[in-house]
Amino acid sequence: MGAAAQTIQNASYQTVGYIKSDGTIQDKSYRTVGYIKRDGTVQDASYRTIGYLKDNGTVQDRSYRTVGYVKDNGTIQDSSYRTVGYVKDDGTVQDRNYRTIGYAKGIPRKWAAFYFFFQK
Description:
The chain is built from one helix and twelve strands. It is mostly beta strands and about 120 residues long. About 10% of the residues lie in helices and about 45% in strands.
């Protein structure tokens, strides 16, 4: 991924945010709303830790409780291993019924999964 921010779009191709190559998360007005650090720590705009993205695909909340999984094949699961969605190789993000809910082209799969499925 280059130095420029990668665009995150909803299913209607409207820009809803950006993720920069350094992990800075911005809303559609370029206001910083969070950070994904190189070690997998996810922080809000005030640098408070809100979660963790582990190398093995495990997604944890700030208390280290597992809230989900991002599989190598793009399947996104909740903490009970139920499939909640998919992030395809081309950046298309789908819900569990394969309906497109957004696009995150050029963004690491774990980052896209966190943005669409776990940051709420």
